[in-house]
Amino acid sequence: MWSRSRKLLRRAALTAMALAAIAGCSAAPAAPAPPAAPRHQAAQSSRPQAAEGRGLVVGVYEPNDPGSYSQVSQYAAATGDWPGMVVYYSNWGQPFETAFARQVSAHGGETLVQVDPRGVSLSAIADGQQDRYLDAYADAVRDLGHPVIISFGQEMNGNWYPWGSGYASPAVYVAAWRHIVDLFRARHVANVKWLWDVNCVYPGSSPLSEWWPGAAYVTWAGLDCYYAYASDTFASLFGPTLAAIRQVTSRPILIAETAVGNTPAREAQITGLFAGTYAEHLLGLVWFDQAQQGGDYHQDWRLEDDPAALVAFRAAAKEYSDGLATTQRPSPGTRSASARPSAPG
């Protein structure tokens, strides 16, 4: 999916936000049943209901996505609510996962697809050589009939992906992005939000302005940052990148990938993540709920195996996502037999 071993996050000394630690997190809460799934109501706005009501959208990536939905169900049971956004990663040439997207919609969420252009040149995309694949993909998204968020070539300002800095020309990246959006529009696909998703800036990273496709081609901006050390704060991690994005665009911003590692300050950092996201008027955040090994940026990011962290996450999510419309995301315990998913497998 992504490599963090080569990422050197800027650790600028900025004034940290005053963050409250979660107290009394030593005992694990009783695991609730997965909340009932709401009947789908298609969103018409270009922003989630949660953002309009000042509540945060809380999304998740699970390593099984877009396979079995059981991991998302287990996450929902642990956190007490179905995620408002569910992410999956798609290599170039793979078809749109319609069945998975329908499951996400049935549970009141929106699908975020991170389309990675692996094994294809950006110039081939920009020149129309991949239009047959894109035509089929666009038609499948349109026929779904529910909102879909699409990100193309994430973290392009870093130097670890073949479409990123040092491997690809920013001008060709922008041309490929615009060609994709133009093709979707020509095929009358009106249910897509286009997410331009960058990595947190760091010393030596490519300027964001070079990779910007233009306001006419982007719905939201996104950024990916992870808490790897106890000294990390929202201000030190996200502050420089938020400032850089806002120099380029005034589009709404989503934290498209984040998690807090196994640091001594994990519970307080989780609280700070939500508090900072809310204070900065961002759309929300997507938690990367995967266990990894191999360094500071390949940690066990999962919540379910850390009771104290889960308590902090549940409390923060409840506090900062209460603006969600109840018709979109019912509170835990609400039952809808006709729409309730099968038990986690």
Write a structural description.
By secondary structure, the chain is of the alpha/beta class. It has a single domain, classed as Glycosidases (TIM Barrel), CATH 3.20.20.80. The chain has helices at residues 49-52, 70-79, 98-106, 122-126, 131-144, 170-186, 234-248, 266-279, 307-320, and strands at residues 57-61, 85-91, 110-116, 148-152, 192-199, 220-224, 253-258, 284-288, 291-295, 298-300. Helix 7 links the parallel strand 6 and strand 7 (253-258). Helix 8 packs parallel to helix 9 (307-320). The chain starts with 48 loop residues before the first helix and ends in a 25-residue tail after the last helix.
Summarize the structure.
It is built from nine helices and ten strands.
Task: Name the CATH architecture.
Answer: Alpha-Beta Barrel
CATH superfamily descriptor: Glycosidases
Order of helices and strands: HEHEHEHHEHEEHEHEEEH
Give the terminus-to-terminus CA distance.
Answer: 24 Å
Computed CA radius of gyration, to the nearest angstrom: 19 Å
- Total domains: 1
Q: Label the structural class.
A: alpha/beta
**How many beta strands in the DSSP annotation?**
10
